[in-house]
Every structure is written in C-alpha cells, then in structure tokens.
Amino acid sequence: MITEPSAYGGCLLGLALGDALGAPYEGGVPERALWRLLGSTSQGLPRWTDDTSMSLDLAESLLACRALDPDDLAGRFAASYRWSRGYGPSTARLLKRIRQGEDWRLAAKAIHPQGSWGNGAAMRAPVVALHCPSDPDTLVLISREQARVTHAHPLGVEGAVMIAVATQCALQHLPPAEVIRTVQKNLHEPQMLTRVETVARWVERGVLQEAVTVRRELGNGIAAQDSCATAVYIALSHFDHCFEDMLAFVRAVRGDVDTISAMAGAIWGARHGVKALPVTPIEARDDILSIAQRLYERAQHRGKV
Ligand code: R7I
Ligand code: MG
Ligand code: MG
C-alpha cells in the first residue's frame, strides 16, 4: 500500500480541525465561557489548543532529530507551553517545572509517581504514525517513548499506542474491522481492552450507536481510558460519513470534545485525505499542511511510504 501525501495533510489537518472546532464545546459552563474569550486568533480564526500544539512540537522534534529524542521533545513542549491553550492541569504544572530547568523525569514523578493517565500523550500520537507509516514495531516503540515524557502511567502510554496504531491502519486504508483487530493485538491493559472489545463488537454489527450509549460504555473524559476507544469508535463508524457529521457526533457525546475530535479527526483524515476535509479556515492552516508535507518527504526519503 502506497500512502499518498494527501493522507499526511488529511491526518494532521484533521487533528487540528477537530481540536479547533471541538474546543468551544469542551467541558462544562466555565470552560466554555473561558474559551469564548480565548478561542479566536487576532484575525478572528478558530484557535487550536494543547492537542495541536503538542502534536506540532512532536512533529518538529522528529523532523529535527530524525528520531525520537525525549530530551529535545520535553524542551519543545516546555517552550511552547501557554496557559491559554487549555493544557491539562498536571501537564501544565509539569511543563512549567521543565521550563524552570528541572529534569522532565524527576518533575513528572514528583507530580504523579506513576505518571499521568490523561489523554495528552494519545492526542499527539497520530504524528508517530506519520513518522513511521508502515512499520508496526517501531510505531509502538516510539508511541511509548514519546508518551513517557509527559504521561508515563501505563494507561496514558497505552492510549498513545491505541491512537497511533489506529492512525497507521487508516493511512494503510485497512477496513474498520481490521483496524480494531490490529489495535487489540497491541494492547495489554485490561481497562483499555474491555473498551476496545466493545468497539470491535459494535464495528462488527455495523450499526451506529447512540451518542448516549457511546458516552456510557466508552466514556468521554480526559483520562486516556475514557476517551481513546471513544475516538477510535467514532472515527471508524464515520468512515462512510462526512467529517462534519463526525464532529457533530462527538459534540453529542460531550465531555472532552476537543481531544476526542482531534484523535477521531486525525484517524478520519488519514483515511480520506486532505481534500475530504472542510475548507474552514483555522489558526495556521497552511503551516500545518507544510509540516505534514515535510513529514511525508522525510518518510519517503527513508523509503517508508
Ligand atoms: O492528559 P493531559 O495532558 O490533557 C488532558 C486534557 C485534554 O483533553 C486536553 O485537551 C486538556 O483539556 O486536558 O492532562 P493531565 O493534566 O496530564 O491529566 C488530566 C488529569 O487527569 C489530571 O489533572 C488529574 O486530575 C488526572 N490524573 C491523575 N490523577 C491522579 N493520579 C492523571 N493522572 C493521574 C494520576 O496518576
Ligand atoms: Mg485541548
Ligand atoms: Mg481536551
């Protein structure tokens, strides 16, 4: 299977569109009120949040280092940190400590001894699939390594593996049932596997579930175990629908709408390519497409696409 350059733009822009268009609906009343103040650029374009910011950091780090360098990645995350991007509370504390010169390994342990189980490492994991679109073993290794910088908890790490594997399968145009089987083979944590088994059953049945059922059975929270399987299900069950319908479904599921939309958007965009995405202008749309193009050229140079 030859991966087209359009799939790269589709994946990274799908992530950013999901994030920017989902952000106004994230969380409860206070979060939405705050985002009404922060959610536009000075040109009036929808702004994206930590999901896209960390994804672009990971992409730039992989391009600059030609491999995963956790120290370089931690430095980029810390340098890009802005409170106005809506980072998760533990990640915000961690990045401020790294910026003050603390080693990321020690700072992360001081905040949560086992590391965070938030979905922050999963939301940027589609970039790992763009780095290694055809090599499943390296994909899993790099997904884990990049996750450990901010989300060392086994659930935070497995969320990243889940989203990276699903994205790689989407780049390869695998059908939904095969995507979910491949995801299952790469997971070990019972909490993740239970939810992915539900997704597998629903995908096999082929009937789109109600949003309220998805929320109840798969979750809609900021923990990796409450959002990654949700995003994978929503992407796979919308392969035959348009992008906008998929985002409307995420809004109906509620909760961590920016991140579930970003992860589902990246998987959907990897499968359908950039031309299938809405032309809605968002913050730095052209820069995002140019980073996707550079990732494609690098993978092509390494003979990976
Ligand atoms: O995972 P993270 O970077 O981002 C999560 C969400 C995304 O939706 C973003 O868009 C943003 O909106 O936030 O955030 P973290 O701060 O790493 O984790 C989120 C929360 O999970 C933490 O603030 C904790 O409340 C909780 N949490 C834990 N609680 C106890 N013990 C994560 N790990 C632990 C833990 O080990
Ligand atoms: Mg966010
Ligand atoms: Mg979020």
Please, could you describe this protein's structure?
The protein is mainly α and 305 residues long. It has one domain (5-301): ADP-ribosylglycohydrolase fold, CATH 1.10.4080.10. 65% of the residues lie in helices and 0% in strands. It has 16 helices and no strands. The protein has helices at 5-22, 29-38, 50-65, 70-80, 89-99, 104-111, 126-131, 136-148, 154-171, 176-185, 190-205, 211-218, 228-237, 243-253, 257-272, 285-301. The longest helix has 18 residues, at 5-22. It is globular. One magnesium ion binds at residues 26, 256, 258-259.
Features:
globular, binds inosine diphosphate ribose, 16 helices, 305 residues, 65% helix, ADP-ribosylglycohydrolase fold, binds magnesium ion, mainly alpha
Bound molecules: inosine diphosphate ribose, magnesium ion
H and E order? HHHHHHHHHHHHHHHH
- Let me know the largest β-sheet: none
Output the CATH topology.
ADP-ribosylglycohydrolase fold
Low-confidence stretches: none
Number of strands: 0
* Distance N to C terminus: 8 Å
Backbone CA Rg: 17 Å
Structural class: mainly alpha
Report strand %: under 5%
Q: Can you tell me the overall shape? A: globular
Please identify which CATH superfamily we are dealing with: ADP-ribosylation/Crystallin J1
